[in-house]
Amino acid sequence: MFFGKKKPKDSKESASGEAPASIQPNPAKADPWFRHADNAKDSLQHAYALKLFASGLSFDNTRLDLVEPILSCAVLHRDQGGKAAPSSEKKEIEGMGPYGKFASAYYAWLRDLGNIKVALEFMRQAVSFDSKPWANHHANTIFKMHLTGKTSKKGWVELMRLCGEANNWDLAQQAGAKARELDPSDGDLDTELKDLAAARAMTEGGYTEAAGTEGGFRKMIKDADKQKELQEEETLAGGAETAAAPLERARQAYEANPADTNAVAKLLQLLRRVGDFDALNEAKRVALAAFKTTSEYRFRMFAGDLEIKTAEQRVEERRKASEDDPDNEDLALQLEEADRSLQELKLAEYSERVEKYPTDRKRKYDLGTILFRLGRTEEAMAQFQAAKDEPRLHADAAHNLGLCFHAEGWFVEAVAEFDEALSRVESSEREKILDMKYDLMLGLIEGAKAEKDLEMAHRAKAICSEIARTNIAYRDIRDRRREVDEVIGTING
């Protein structure tokens, strides 16, 4: 019997249909559902397990650790010919907890994975009911559904908007581009794509956080007064010549009031879009001056990003010169020095940002990457371990943590992290999975050598064989197969 049908008093919605801001996850109510769901899954009762999982999520939407078991259960349900959920069950889940609409929509999609319309409704509810991480976790899968299924311009536009609301900018822009391919003459869509670019620039630059913007993507792009400084259509549509007029107007507005943060933001964005040496230098000066005047850290980050961009360009110039003259030792040294300077600059910038935003796991991940490149492995480990707390970063952070352990000669620990990374990576990310399996194989080989562990060696051989069957040309897989055979032979004596 399905239990817990009574709708809690705290599940009422706002007049807008969105979850009230006051609601909080209730793990005490959710956990019994999740335990029953695990039992049902183990008993191969896939449809029932999905219903139980969704019931728990109606009370607690924070359990992203359940994504993989839930999705695997849904795949088994689909592969075994499982049917879509009855409307009565969807309504039952909807009325249970404060996140009922999100959980019900998720349940409907899990029971009908190939249905694009249902998938979009799940994303819509996830965005509306304070469940954006769930939307982001599945956005790539839903995007690929659109690529392979029967889709329309309307579907691509809706996906673009939903990905935008979830701050999944790459997929939002890709979906918008697909919609435009279907109808190049849609001027309204062109405007919306420009709005999307502006919203992305503001969010990634920390502008929405600094300005206290609320309400997500749709509110952001509809607020013309706050957004107009980033929506210069003539600039977005044209090059440097087209940008001349709005750029001059932006300079005048800034010079009239250098403390006006909107005027500063507008000028900085236009200068960055021009992108030549003089414009970037001017942008750095303006950003640093604005930081000094307003104490808003977003301007300090903007200047730092420009400095990094300049350093990256310098490295690329040195690399091309070195490739054109590979025997020139001076050019090779210049490339090495330019790259070292770039890494040190990134280290200083990312370290400062982690200090400024200590709870931002993505910034910790970025810092860990730089530390690892510089050979500061132990420090990198600490950053990757912290980054694993962010569900979207977990797989990559575990993979990089495994590389750190491997570099330190801790092969058992490296293998454990690689295994963990593989357990959390999306099944659709085939190239990433192949890279992770390769690194796992290397860890097992080195571990087998160090510990004279035959079990590790045989596991390495099995993974090597799996990679070869997938892509015989992958890296040095032929050499690795010979190596692991030699290791097995050595251990056997």
Overall description:
By secondary structure, the protein is mostly helical. Among the domains are: 9-150, no CATH class; 243-356, Serine Threonine Protein Phosphatase 5, Tetratricopeptide repeat (Alpha Horseshoe), CATH 1.25.40. It has 26 helices and no strands. The protein has helices at residues 27-42, 46-57, 67-79, 87-94, 100-110, 116-128, 132-148, 153-165, 169-182, 187-204, 207-211, 216-222, 224-227, 233-237, 240-256, 261-274, 277-294, 297-324, 329-356, 361-373, 377-387, 394-407, 411-424, 430-451, 454-470, 477-492. Helix 23 (411-424) runs antiparallel to helix 24. The longest helix has 28 residues, at 297-324. The N and C termini lie far apart (60 Å). Mean pLDDT is 83; it is low at 1-22, 207-216 and 220-242.
What's a quick, concise take on this entry?
The protein has 26 helices and no strands. It has 493 residues and is mainly α.
What is the fold's blueprint, element by element?
Layout: H1 27-42, H2 46-57, H3 67-79, H4 87-94, H5 100-110, H6 116-128, H7 132-148, H8 153-165, H9 169-182, H10 187-204, H11 207-211, H12 216-222, H13 224-227, H14 233-237, H15 240-256, H16 261-274, H17 277-294, H18 297-324, H19 329-356, H20 361-373, H21 377-387, H22 394-407, H23 411-424, H24 430-451, H25 454-470, H26 477-492
Cα-to-Cα separation, first versus last residue:
60 Å
Order of helices and strands: HHHHHHHHHHHHHHHHHHHHHHHHHH
Q: What is the alpha-carbon Rg in Å?
A: 26 Å
What's the β-strand tally?
0
Q: Biggest β-sheet, characterized? A: none
Please count the helical segments: 26
How confident is the prediction overall: mean pLDDT?
A: 83
Form type: globular
Sheet-strand content, in percent, reads under 5%
The class by helix and strand makeup works out as mainly alpha
Helix share bin: over 70%
Regions with pLDDT < 50 over 5+ consecutive residues?
1-22, 207-216, 220-242
